[in-house]
Design a protein that fits this description.
- The complex is a heterodimer.
- Chain A is an alpha+beta fold.
- Chain A contains 4 helices and 5 strands; from the N terminus they run E-H-E-H-E-H-E-E-H.
- Classes of the chains: A alpha+beta, B alpha+beta.
- At the A-B interface, helix 2, helix 3 and strand 5 of A face helix 1, helix 2 and helix 4 of B.
C-alpha cells in the first residue's frame, strides 16, 4: 500500500463532488472511487464521509435517492445537481490555481530572485 | 434558504424517519464494506466486526451528520428537554427540592421587586409621566410651598408648560344625613388640565373657574369613591355635597385609574384650592409664611432640560429672597419625581426597598449556591453515566448543554411557581390598607416589568447554579471512571461545595442577625420614653371645621367638650391638643427669636421648635411631668400676656440653661413677646428617632387650635370609656364626625408602622435564609454520610464510639456551619448600621441579639444534621458486608 496522506481540511467536499461527477454512487462507493482515482494515496476515515455527504445535500449540490447496489443491497445513491456541477468546476479551477502557485513558490531557487 | 427550510420541516415533522433513514444508510455502508472484506477471505462474522471497527465512532458521526442537516438548534433543544425530563423524573425528590427552593427565592425577589416597581420605578398613571417633575425646596425637609410663592413660580417660570399644585386634606362630607370623614386632594384649578386627563363623567374644573377666594364651589369625585359610596349613581353629577358644611356642586367623576398624583394615597375627592378658607377655616391664600401646599408639579416644556429648569427656578428663588426677605431664608429649588411625595418620603422608602431588594438578591444567591452544590453532587453521582456517554462518542459540549438544559428547566419551573405565588401576594398587598384611617395602600399590581424580572432572575440563576458542575464534567476521563468508579474529590481540602455552603450559611446568619436586630429595636421603641404616657389614655380625634364651626364658636365648643368629658365617671383628666405628638402626621414648627432680636427674618431665628396648642389640663391627661413653673389656666386668654411652656431642649437653645428660663421671654415672627411660665420634660414629637428636639406649648385661648384632639385619661376599660365618650359627643353635636381609640392603638398603627413592616419583611427573609441553610447543611451532611457508609461501617465493626462516628460523619458540616455563622454574624453586625435608619434603636451591639443569633444558628445545625446523624449511627456493618 502506498503512503497515505491525511487530506487537507476542506478538500473532502471537492473530492466527493469529483467522485460523484463520474457517475451516481452510494456512500461506500464514494470511498472506493476516491481511493481508486487517488491511487489509494488519500485516506478518509469511513464515518467522516457521512457528515460531508449530508452537508452537500443540504447545500443542494448533491441529490440522493434509494436504489439497489451491485451487491444487491439497498443503498442510498448520490448524484450531482446542476449547482453541484457548477461548484465542482469553480472549485477545481481555484484548486488548480492554488496548486500551481504553491508548486511555483516551492520550486523557487535563490538565483531566480 | 428554501432547502434549509424544507430540511428543517422534514426534520421537525418526520424526525423518526430521518433518523431511520440515516441509520439504514450507515448499516448499508458497513454491510458493503463487510462484503468486500468477506471477498478478501475473512469469515462473515469477523468481516462484520472489522467493518464496524473501521467505520469509527459511529454515534459521533451520526450526530455530526444530523448537525450537517441543519435546523438543529430547536431539534437538539427538544431532545435535551426530553432527556432532562426523563432524568428529572428518575430523581423526583431532587427535582422537587430544587424547584421549591428556587420558587421560594424567586418569589421573594418578585414580591420585593413588585413593591419597588410600584412605588419607585413605575411613573404615576398620567399621560407623559416622563416629563412630569415636582419642585423641591432646599430649606425644608418637605417639598412644601406657600400659596403666594406657588403663584410666583407658576407665573414667572419659563420652563414648565403649566404648574399645578395639590395638598391632601381631611374633610367631613355630607350628602344628606350621614356625615363621613374622608381624605381628598385640594388642587389648583389647572390641575387636571396640566395632567392632561379626561373626566369619566361630567367635567373637571379649570383654571378659568378660579376668581379669588371661595369662588369655585365645585367638587370632583374619584371613580372608586363614587363607585363604593354612591353606587355608580350617574345622577350624582350636578348634585350638591356639603364639605365641612359648605355646599359644593359635584361637577364630574375622575377616570377609573386615577387617584391623584401621590402613588400611595387614594383621594376620595378633588376640591379647588381657592376654596381653602371655606373648607379649612384658615385664610392661607395670602400668607407667604405658611407652607401648606404639598407639592407644585408640572410638565417640562419640550426641549427644556431639567438642569435648565432648575436654573430658571433658582432665578425665581433669588427674586423671592430679595423681594420678601422676611419670609424667606436662603434656599434653592431642585426637581424631583412627583409620585412619592418627593424626596421627603421617597428617599427612606427607596432606601428601605433597595436594602430589601439586596437581601432578597442574597437569598437568591444562597439558593443558587444550594442548588449549585446539589447539582455538583448529582453530577458526581452521574459521573458513570457521563463517562459512558463520553466513551460512546458524545461530545463534552453536548453533555454540558444537557446539564444546562436541566438547570434551565428547573429554574423555569421554580420561577413560574415563585412568580405565581408572588402575583397572589402582590394582588393581596394592593388591596390591603395598612392604616385603616388613612387612604393609603401600595398599588403593587404586578405588571410586565415584574414578570420580566422574575424570568430574567430565573435564567440568570440557572446559569449560576448550572455552571457549578462544569469543571467536573470537563475533567471527567471516561477510562478512569469506568474502571475505578467515582471517588469523591480526595485530597482536596476545600472543595467548591464547601465554599458555597459557607457563603450560604453566612448569608443566612446575616439575615437572622438583621431580623433579630429589627425585632429588638421594635421591642425597645415600645418601651422608650416618649415624654408622655400613652397607657390608659383614650384619644378622640375630631375636627370642628368639619361640623361647620368657625371663629369664636370653636374655643367655646372645645371648652364645652372638655367639660362634658370631665363629667364622665371614672375620668381622671381631660386635655386638648391641636395635633398630638407622634401620631398625627401634622406638626407645626415656628421660628422663634431672642427677646433682643430686631430683625425678624428666618435667617435670624434661634430655633424652629415644634409648637403645640393645648388646654390647661393637657399635661395631666398626657402624663407629661411639669419640671418647673406652672401650667396654663383658662385665664391665659387673648386679654392676658402671651405665655408658653417649653421643654429643656428649647430652654438650652434659647437661654443657655434651664436655670434662668422661667420668667424670660422670646419673640415670635409676628413680633409678639412670649413669657415662659413653665418647663416640662422633653420627649418625642415627630418620630421615634427625635433626639432632644426643642418644643413649646401655648394655650388654646391665645393661639386657637384648628385640630380638636381630646386626651381622656381613665383607668376604666377602654371599651367602656369609648362608649361613654361616644354618647357624650352625640349629645353635644350629632353632626361631628370623629374617631375614638386608645393612644397605644394609635401609636401601634401609625408611629410603629415602618418598624412593623421592617420586622415582618426581615423576619420573612430571615426564615427563608434559615430554611435554605437547613437544606444546604442537610444536603451536605446526608451526602457525606451516604458516600462514607462503607467507611462508617468498618469503623463500627472496629468498635468506634458514637461520638467518634458522629465526628467522622458530620465534623465537616459542623465546621462549615461554625465558620459560616461567625462570618455572617460579623457581616450582619456591620450591615445593621443601615437598619438603624429605619428601625429606631436598632443596635447590633446587644448581648441578647448576639446570643440569639448563636442560638438560632446552633439550632439550625441541629435540625439539619439530625437525620444524617441518625443514619450514620444506624449503619449496620453486617448488612454492608452482605451487600458488597
Amino acid at each position: 500500500m502506498p503512503d497515505q496522506a491525511q487530506i487537507l481540511p476542506g478538500t473532502l467536499d471537492l473530492l466527493i463532488l469529483k467522485a460523484v461527477s463520474l457517475g451516481p454512487l452510494h456512500g461506500y462507493g464514494v470511498l472506493l472511487r476516491i481511493g481508486q482515482i487517488s491511487d489509494s494515496a488519500l485516506l478518509i476515515e469511513q464515518g467522516a464521509l457521512y457528515p460531508a455527504l449530508f452537508r452537500l445535500v443540504r447545500q443542494g449540490l448533491l441529490k440522493a435517492s434509494w436504489g439497489v447496489s451491485e451487491n444487491n443491497r439497498r443503498a442510498k445513491f448520490y448524484e450531482l445537481t446542476a449547482a453541484g456541477r457548477k461548484r465542482l468546476r469553480e472549485e477545481t479551477e481555484s484548486w488548480n490555481r492554488l496548486a500551481a502557485a504553491m508548486a511555483a513558490s516551492l520550486a523557487a531557487r535563490a538565483e531566480g530572485i | 434558504m428554501f432547502a434549509y427550510l424544507r430540511n428543517l420541516g422534514v426534520k421537525l415533522f418526520r424526525r423518526d424517519q430521518v433518523a431511520e433513514d440515516m441509520e439504514e444508510e450507515l448499516r448499508s455502508h458497513i454491510a458493503h464494506r463487510a462484503d468486500d472484506l468477506e471477498h478478501s477471505g475473512l469469515g462473515r462474522a469477523e468481516a462484520d466486526r472489522r467493518a464496524r471497527l473501521e467505520f469509527g465512532a459511529r454515534e459521533r458521526y451520526k450526530e455530526e451528520s444530523y448537525a450537517a442537516l441543519g435546523g438543529n438548534f430547536l431539534d437538539t433543544l427538544l431532545k435535551d428537554v426530553f432527556y432532562s425530563l426523563r432524568a428529572l423524573r428518575k430523581s423526583r425528590s431532587f427535582a422537587v427540592t430544587a424547584i421549591l427552593t428556587l420558587a421560594m427565592a424567586i418569589g421573594a425577589n418578585a414580591v420585593v421587586f413588585g413593591v419597588l416597581n410600584a412605588l419607585v420605578l413605575r411613573p404615576i398613571n398620567v399621560p407623559n409621566a416622563d416629563s412630569l417633575y415636582g419642585i423641591e425646596r432646599s430649606d425644608t425637609s418637605d417639598p412644601v410651598q406657600s400659596y403666594p410663592d406657588y403663584l410666583d413660580l407658576r407665573d414667572r417660570n419659563r420652563s414648565f408648560e403649566s404648574l399645578a399644585a395639590y395638598r391632601i386634606i381631611e374633610a367631613g362630607l355630607d350628602s344628606g344625613n350621614n356625615p363621613i370623614r374622608s381624605f381628598g386632594y385640594e388642587v389648583s384649578g389647572n390641575y387636571f388640565d396640566m395632567l392632561g386627563i379626561q373626566p369619566y363623567l361630567g367635567r373637571f374644573f379649570h383654571g378659568s373657574d378660579e376668581h379669588g377666594p371661595n369662588s369655585a364651589p365645585y367638587i370632583v369625585l374619584s371613580y372608586a369613591f363614587w363607585h363604593s359610596r354612591f353606587q355608580d349613581d350617574r345622577g350624582m353629577v350636578g348634585r350638591v355635597l356639603l364639605v365641612n358644611k359648605h355646599p359644593f356642586t359635584v361637577v364630574g367623576i375622575a377616570p377609573p385609574g386615577f387617584h391623584g398624583t401621590l402613588v400611595f394615597a387614594f383621594g376620595d375627592f378633588f376640591l379647588p384650592m381657592v376654596d381653602t378658607e371655606e373648607v379649612d377655616g384658615q385664610d392661607l391664600l395670602n400668607s407667604r409664611e405658611t407652607n401648606w401646599i404639598y407639592l407644585a408639579l408640572g410638565h417640562l416644556k419640550p426641549g427644556v432640560s431639567p438642569a435648565q429648569a432648575v436654573a430658571d427656578l433658582n432665578s425665581i428663588a433669588g427674586y423671592l429672597q430679595k423681594t420678601y426677605p422676611k419670609e424667606h431664608g436662603s434656599f434653592h429649588y431642585s426637581l424631583s419625581r412627583p409620585g412619592l411625595y418627593d424626596e421627603a418620603l421617597g428617599r427612606p422608602v427607596e432606601m428601605f426597598l433597595t436594602g430589601l431588594m439586596l437581601l432578597a438578591g442574597l437569598i437568591l444567591l444562597a439558593a443558587c449556591a444550594n442548588l449549585g452544590s446539589l447539582f455538583a453532587a448529582r453530577a458526581a453521582d452521574r459521573s458513570k453515566e457521563v463517562a459512558l456517554r463520553l466513551a460512546l462518542g458524545s461530545s463534552r459540549n453536548r453533555i454540558l448543554r444537557s446539564l444546562f438544559t436541566e438547570a434551565a428547566m428547573i429554574s423555569l419551573a421554580g420561577g413560574t411557581l415563585g412568580l405565581s405565588g408572588s402575583v397572589v401576594l402582590l394582588r393581596a398587598l394592593s388591596t390591603w390598607r395598612p392604616l385603616p384611617r388613612y387612604p393609603i395602600s401600595v398599588p403593587a399590581d404586578p405588571d410586565p416589568n415584574v414578570y420580566g424580572a422574575a424570568l430574567l432572575l430565573a435564567l440568570v440563576s440557572a446559569i449560576l447554579f448550572g455552571a457549578v458542575p462544569v469543571r467536573q464534567v470537563l475533567k471527567t476521563t471516561p477510562y478512569q471512571i469506568v474502571k475505578a468508579g467515582w471517588q469523591a474529590a480526595v485530597g482536596r481540602r476545600i472543595s467548591l461545595r464547601d465554599v458555597l455552603l459557607v457563603i450560604q450559611i453566612a448569608l443566612c446568619a446575616v439575615l437572622v442577625t438583621s431580623s433579630m436586630v429589627a425585632v429588638r429595636g421594635l421591642v425597645r421603641s415600645l418601651h422608650s420614653d416618649f415624654g408622655f404616657d400613652p397607657a390608659n389614655v383614650t384619644i378622640v380625634t375630631s375636627d370642628l371645621r368639619m361640623a361647620g364651626y368657625s371663629g369664636e364658636r370653636v374655643p367655646e365648643m372645645q371648652k364645652r367638650m372638655l367639660g362634658a368629658m370631665q363629667a364622665i365617671p371614672g375620668v381622671e383628666a381631660v386635655g386638648l391638643i391641636d395635633w398630638p405628638p407622634l401620631i398625627s402626621g401634622v406638626y407645626e414648627q415656628v421660628d422663634v427669636y431672642s427677646d433682643q432680636a430686631g430683625d425678624l427674618s428666618p435667617a435670624n431665628a434661634v430655633s424652629s421648635p415644634f409648637s403645640f396648642r393645648i388646654s390647661p389640663d393637657y399635661f395631666r391627661a398626657a402624663g407629661t411631668t411639669l419640671l418647673a413653673g406652672r401650667t396654663f389656666s383658662w385665664h391665659d386668654d387673648a386679654n392676658a400676656p402671651r405665655v408658653a411652656i417649653v421643654n429643656p431642649a428649647f430652654a438650652i437653645k434659647l437661654f443657655g440653661s434651664t436655670a434662668n428660663t422661667l420668667g424670660s421671654s422670646f419673640k415670635l415672627q409676628d413680633g409678639a413677646r412670649v413669657l415662659v411660665v413653665g418647663i416640662v420634660e422633653g420627649g418625642k414629637y415627630r418620630g421615634l428617632a427625635d433626639d432632644a428636639a426643642p418644643a413649646m406649648f401655648v394655650p388654646v385661648l391665645q393661639s386657637p387650635a384648628l385640630g380638636t384632639n381630646l386626651l381622656i385619661r381613665s383607668s376604666r376599660e377602654p371599651q367602656q370609656v369609648a362608649g361613654a365618650v361616644r354618647k357624650t359627643l352625640r349629645s353635644l353635636d350629632p353632626g361631628l364626625p370623629s374617631y375614638i381609640e386608645t393612644w397605644n392603638q394609635h401609636m401601634d398603627d401609625f408611629t410603629l408602622f415602618p418598624t412593623h413592616v421592617a420586622v415582618v419583611a426581615l423576619g420573612v427573609l430571615g426564615i427563608m435564609g434559615a430554611l435554605l441553610s437547613i437544606t444546604g447543611i442537610f444536603g451536605l451532611a446526608a451526602y457525606t454520610v451516604s458516600k462514607r457508609v462503607k467507611e462508617l461501617g468498618i469503623r463500627i465493626a472496629l468498635g468506634a464510639q458514637k461520638s467518634e462516628l458522629l465526628r467522622a460523619a458530620l465534623g465537616r458540616a459542623i465546621k462549615l456551619l461554625a465558620v459560616g455563622s461567625s462570618a455572617g454574624l460579623i457581616l450582619g453586625i456591620l450591615a445593621s448600621g443601615v437598619l438603624s435608619h429605619i428601625v429606631y434603636q436598632a443596635t447590633p451591639r446587644d448581648p441578647l441579639v448576639l446570643a440569639g443569633v448563636v442560638l438560632a444558628m446552633a439550632l439550625l445545625g441541629l435540625i439539619a444534621t439530625w437525620i444524617p446523624a441518625q443514619r450514620a449511627l444506624s449503619v449496620d456493618p453486617l448488612i454492608l458486608l452482605r451487600e458488597e
